[in-house]
Amino acid sequence: MFLTITDAAQQKLAKYISPDKQVILDLDDGVGKYSKVGSCSLNMSYRLLVVDKSEDISHDYSGTLDSTIGQLHIKPYSTQYLDDNMRLDVNPRLNTLGLSSDSEQMDPNVNIVDIAKEMKE
After folding, report:
1. Neighbours of 96 (CB within 10 A)
2. Cα–Cα distance between 36 and 33 in angstroms, integer?
3. Which tens digits make up the pLDDT trace of 11-69?
4. What is the mean pLDDT of the chain?
5. Which of 11, 16, 97, 112 has the fewest beta carbons closer than 10 A?
6. Domain map of the chain by residue range?
7. In angstroms, what CA-CA distances link 101 with 37, 50, 108?
């Protein structure tokens, strides 16, 4: 399983990525300390969460996913919804991040949530 993050998506993520941060590809299903609301619909909803490196996320996000920018943390059971080859790219018309696989668009609007910043405010 691999997530290709395009150059355009990497540029959008650049201000969030640093050695003192860790990135989570979060299936927003209402499980975990960063989820406030789960979705009952059949649609998959993903978010990229940015947290401090010192934050212990191992309880909910003990899985990993290889990507163009290194390993991302994930909920271990969320791999059942992911494909072998996935892609995170920018929709230039809407300036949003979209997650897709070779066979389908998984989420056309992947939000970036800077938890590290929210915790400091």
Report:
1. 15
2. 8
3. 999 999 999 999 999 998 888 888 766 555 556 789 999 999 999 999 999 999 999 99
4. 90
5. 11
6. 2-119
7. 25, 23, 12
Q: Does domain 2-119 have CATH number 3.30.70.3270?
A: no
d(CA 83, CA 2): 8
Sequence letter at residue 35: S
Q: What local confidence, expressed as pLDDT, does residue 72 receive?
A: 97
Strands 2-5 and 46-52: unpaired
Phi and psi at residue 83, in whole multiples of 5°? -100, 170
51 contacts 59 by C-beta, under 8 angstroms: no
Tell me the C-alpha distance between 121 and 117, whole Å.
7
